[in-house]
């Protein structure tokens, strides 16, 4: 439901009395608030895939509609649990952040039609409370991972572009290599001549292929061709087209950084979640559905937040 990393000014991490000493919260969100998120996701998917997506069947036999509803429920439960973690750690919004969150809520609510407001039964305060929890879910990730060594080097994030020829015939692979060693040879032309198809051209980063393939590919300078690489009875010849894709490497570095941050946060969150997880009861959740509300077209709940604060860390 969310992506990338959210850059927020961090607050000091201050321990307060353990959360278990307080009365646990039993109600996570109202039906209106849950429907805002559920119908946001329904509408986002329908915009891309049309309503035929709901009949698609997952591997476990559930329809995609049931799968997405389950994901929305988990998202909401996690979000509320993360706000409790923020409270436990003494993490709060600054007045400036609160003003910005309220502005996002006002922009979202003012764009709703009268029929959408009536169907959802939502108020601006309800929307603001949702955005406050979403913001705190992002902020708790930032604060609790602040200061950790999550640096990603260019080497480990490096992305290159390669062409590859694949065959199950070692003799053919050696023949291709021999032809490519000739002066003036053309990788694509040789591939088509010997195999009858053009070579595959693609971007490659570390961790995507077996070590032998990666070592051969990443040792090449632009224009160079590898010797034959054997992997489980298949034979590859690799040409490096570009030995450093700057934009793709930057994106890969950001992705690795986000993965490390999420992993580091999960080490903290996992223990807290075991003792303080907020659950939405089956009775409460039974009122949430994608059915009806055909006039409810709102789909920009997360987009408005991103416009104000940037991409977010919390993924639910």
Structure description:
- The longest helix is centred in the C-terminal third of the chain and has 31 residues, at 246-276.
- It contains 12 helices and 4 strands, in the order ααααααβααβαββααα.
- α1 crosses α2 (64-88) and α3 runs antiparallel to α12.
- The protein has helices spanning 31-49, 64-88, 95-110, 114-120, 124-145, 154-157, 170-181, 187-195, 211-218, 246-276, 282-285, 301-309, and strands spanning 159-167, 200-205, 229-231, 234-242.
- The chain starts with 30 loop residues before the first helix and ends in a 7-residue tail after the last helix.
- With 316 residues, it is of the alpha+beta class.
- The radius of gyration is 26 Å and the shape is elongated.
- It has a 4-stranded antiparallel sheet, with helices on both faces.
Radius of gyration: 26 Å
The secondary-structure class comes to alpha+beta
- The total of helices stands at 12
Give unreliable regions as ranges. Answer: 1-26
Distance between the termini: 7 Å
What is the residue-averaged pLDDT? 88
Order of helices and strands: HHHHHHEHHEHEEHHH
Q: Tell me, what's the shape?
A: elongated
Q: How much β-strand is present in the residues?
A: 5-15%
Q: What does the main sheet amount to? A: 4 strands, antiparallel
- Can you give the helix content as a percent range? 40-55%
Please give the order of strands in the largest beta sheet.
2-1-4-3
Please report the total strand number as a whole number: 4
